[in-house]
Amino acid sequence: SNISGTTSYRKLKSSLVIQLTMCVCVCVCVGLCETDNVNKAGYTPVMLAALTAAESPDDLEVAQQLLRLGDVDARSRQAGQTALMLAVSHGRVAMVKLLLSSSADVNAQDCEGSTALMCACEHGHTHIVRLLLESGRCDTSLTDKVQHLRSSCFVDLYLVPKSGPGDPLSCSPGPDVCTPVSAQSHI
After folding, report:
1. C-alpha to C-alpha distance for 136 and 133, rounded to whole angstroms
2. I need a surface site. Which of 64, 83, 133, 183 has the fewest CB within 10 A?
């Protein structure tokens, strides 16, 4: 039988990733390894922690200690992404909150010019779009290098106001689903 498609396999895999990342975090916190070292893919321990689905208070505490020790704005070698961009792209809300509280640069741009806000819109993570915008630190005038769109254009493309044009944080059809305006049959 194909175990890779089962829920239990995914839970086990997620649990193992969290445990492995937390082991890395503990090693960093006790001084057994450097926070700014990169693996072969060009990721630091902070970036790897940003990819975890850490939710428990213990996991979040360990991740917070790692964020205090490492460079939250370091960029990956491959695409120039930061830990915040990685957490945003993978929908890791708890890690996004931790990174924002650690003063991660919300306006950092990767090699294509994308920001964390653009990544959140592209991946349909409206709850994260809300967090980023509510931080009050997003520069919506930044432009990416690929589509030459400003951050505000990404928000406009994916967030359709329910209560009127002045409410960019309301989405349709649901609170966690972003749908491009052109895909809406009716508002």
Report:
1. 6
2. 183
**pLDDT tens digits, 139-173:** 988 888 877 666 665 666 555 444 444 444 433 33
The verdict on whether omega for the bond into residue 173 sits within 30 degrees of 0, i.e. cis, is: yes
143 backbone dihedrals φ, ψ, rounded to 5°: -120, 140
Residue 174 in 3-state DSSP? strand
Count CB-CB contacts under 10 A for residue 104: 24
Do residues 63 and 95 lie in contact, with contact meaning Cβ atoms separated by under 8 Å?
Answer: yes
Rounded to two decimals, the pTM is 0.69
Dump pLDDT digits (tens) for 27-84.
555 555 567 788 888 888 889 889 888 878 888 888 888 888 889 999 998 899 999 9
**Distance between CA 43 and CA 53 in Å, rounded?**
17
Q: Smallest Cα–Cα separation from 46: which of 79, 91, 82?
A: 82
Distance of alpha carbon 181 from alpha carbon 187, whole angstroms? 9
Q: Which residue has the higher pLDDT, 20 or 107?
A: 107
Could you tell me the two tokens for 14? Answer: 């997620």
Q: Please, which residues bridge with residue 78 across strands? A: none
Which domains, and CATH codes, for the chain?
Answer: 7-105 (1.25.40.20), 116-182 (no CATH)
Looking at the chain, the number of H-run helices and the number of E-run strands are 8, 2
Please give the pLDDT value at position 164. 43
